[in-house]
Amino acid sequence: MPLAHIIGARICYSPLLPRNRRFTLMASAAIDDAKHGFSRPEMYKENLAGTVDAYDRHVFLCYKNHLTWPPRVEASDADPLPKRVANVWKARKNDTSVKTKITVCEAREEVGFSDGDVLIFPDMVKYKGLEESNVDGFFDDVIVSGKEWGGGEQGVLRGSHIFVCAHGSRDVRCGVCGPALMDKLNEEIQLRGLKDQISVMACAHVGGHKYAGNLIIYCPGPDGKIMGHWYGYVTPDDVPALLDRQIAKGEVIQKLWRGQMGPPVTDIKGADDQKLANGDDNSKTNLSNNENVAGCCQGVNGVSCCRSESFEQNKGIDKTKQGSNISWYWPILQKRDILTAGGILGALAAFAVAYRFYRSDAYDCKEKEKEHPLNQNTGLGKFWDIMRCLGLV
Highest taxon of the source (predicted)? Predict the structure, then answer.
């Protein structure tokens, strides 16, 4: 087993390594990041909108993982299942009226995705048990005819799904950026308590390696329909905004947005309308610091990214609180108004009582002055007033 290895810009090394060897590895990682990672010169050089071809359905084949995929997994003799799928699709793609993309993604047993599972968006359907022998039947029933497949077990996909291009053998840039993005996504999802609501999976080539980090998000939109949004030039600093705005609120991060599932769109109005064309806005690459990034307790379809509440607590929130900031915050404002009004009334009451005592004391003083033998117009009278004000008499 090697003492050290580099995955993207991250370094894992044994404490037994000499100090000069550790420094060499760190320097190599820095150079690798500057050339292929998030610091490479080509970042933010192009306007990303419109860099995704139009499509209406996305089919993912779960197969092994990104560390084992050859450069062209769909053409590898060592990987017969994806090769068979690619060949059948090439022969039958003109037989379907639905524009379809087919992509290989990793199989993750721990989250219920095994080799041969097929995930279909926006249908939110999962089929299990695809093998070389039944690929033709699957395409005939599901892809071409739009029917349910009788050759495998059917399930339902729930929540949101993020596919990150990490196909390092195809392009080093995705091999560097992809794993780092997946680590950050899983970290932020864990912090928000959404591990059971959002899945993160590596996928093979989706086009546009020069835009790495590349990822695709399939999640419910504000109207409940499944949307597919493609993002490029994504860095780990952008992950909180993607979770808090795109997934939780349905807001598009425009300056990283490449396109979407459905009719072709060259531009879209999102929460962030500042474009990154020809690198004109390089100073605003950290979306998590954008002033528009706020809490997402009013997330769409019950999804919340609030760190102080669980998903189960947020499922019961009235949907009227999700569409308007006024309706969302009115209970807090009402309580504050009541407290303010109470404070004002209390102050007025205290003033009225004090004024009443003042008037009463003033009247008593005048009556005593009338009875006092000393005349106020005399020097002794003025002295008497001073002594009385000082409380000495």
Answer: Eukaryota
